[in-house]
Amino acid sequence: MRVLVTGANGFVGRHLVRDLTAAGHEVWQLDRTFSENITSRHIVADLLDGDLEHIVASVNPQGCIHLAGIAFVPVGWQDPAKVLAVNLIGTVRLLEAFRRKAPDARLLIVSSSEVYGRRNRGAPLTEDAPLAPENPYAVSKEGADMSARLYARRYAMAVMCARPDNHCGPGQSRNFVVASFAAQFAAIAAGNAPAVIRVGNLQSERDFSDVRDVAKAYRLILEKGRPGSAYNIASGQRTKIAAIVEMLSRISGVSPRIEVDPARFRPADSTPILDTARLRRETGWAPRYDLETTLTDVFRDIQQQTTSHHGG
Question: What DSSP element (H or E) covers 238?
């Protein structure tokens, strides 16, 4: 399949391009910025002002996985108009370009588990659970999610939605909790920082998947998903943030003093568990990576970056 990936130069995009290529797909990469690790089939364009119809017409994709957007929840509070523009209007512009120029293509719009809200409702949530976004980022993703399914119904387009829970892995921004901790441990292990790690609330619980498992889920949904359907993606295991710190301590061989940073501290919470039965049943997906392996890979990746940076 000729697949257009938007946001191809982002954290998930780079893993997804590798997964799609390994599975034999012809990948075209669209991103706002040019990167040297991107292949020749690369288009620089912005979702909000790029000529998306021209791009879709010239590439003539048979599939599209739409990752481009603002993925960091706090930005939603800092600049809600920008997050809504990029995540919602950008998605609608892409859907409209495909409706006009490649209506038979299969599209996967990447939403977020944030659309369900952060309250733990007890039993695992299926894709039919009511959406209850609690921040501007989640509102932008709910809008994109609903627009995707609307286009599937209204125009009989093969549009699906993915609702991933937290994911981490090599190459993630240090704005995110796992990469932030791993970077602190790597600096201590290298002797570049005192043996103190600054944390928020260690009692909060999250479901973490490996980005490579998530990328594979996106590919499988694109290949096999039912038009108009949404798919939860999660490991089904909740982990306390304290356990992440303990695992990284073991992996790095460092036992730092733990210091609570008031700027990072939030009340302890526990996000809902997502039911992934639909994804597993309809696509055959199953996670390959356990959390310890993921954290080891994140730590080694950051160590390597630090070494090459100091070496260069």
Answer: strand 238-240
